[in-house]
Amino acid sequence: MDSPSSQRPMNMTNSKSSQSRPSSPRLVKAGTAFKKGSGGGFLIHRHNWKPRYLVLTLDALLYFDHQDGHLKGSVDLSDVYDTLALEIMPKDCHKTGHSAASEWRLRINTPSRQFVMAASCERDMREWVEALLSVFRANERRRSDTNRRQQATSSAVSSQWTTNHPQVLCGTTMTF
């Protein structure tokens, strides 16, 4: 039997994945890691570790079943700007038990959820860290550019308004 790290999804395009496909599908990194479950079992709320094939784009982290390639879920990263959203080796997530997940763990904190993953080794974890941080920095640049454009547009509209309507000043009408 192949190890989870050698597995690749056979089909990354199904009806579910086409609905969840990010708007900017540029691939940043892809590979196999373990994802910590949400603990939403029926009776026992275990946080099992499952091998997943991860695909990181500029907007999202998609995770697929490592054997059949079906999309299992995604993490929206478009609103993650702060590098502090990434925790390396979180203290409350150390290795216990006999799971196949390694000790090389990361937590991504987004406005809507947390995503915990375990890389196969330290080098792989560092590669995921660099890739995720590059996405967060790109989001910050995009947000800053958008803010600058909005401020420039607002300033231009305000300037044009006062030039074309000199009698209106500070909300009062002045007569000449």
Automatic annotation (TrEMBL):
SMART domains: PH (SM00233). Gene3D superfamilies: Pleckstrin-homology domain (PH domain)/Phosphotyrosine-binding domain (PTB). This is PH domain-containing protein. Residues 26-137 form the PH domain. Residues 1-14 have a biased composition (Polar residues). Pfam families: PH. Residues 15-26 have a biased composition (Low complexity). Residues 1-26 are annotated as: Disordered. It comes from Aphanomyces astaci. InterPro entries: PH-like_dom_sf, PH_domain, PI-Interact_SigTrans_Reg.
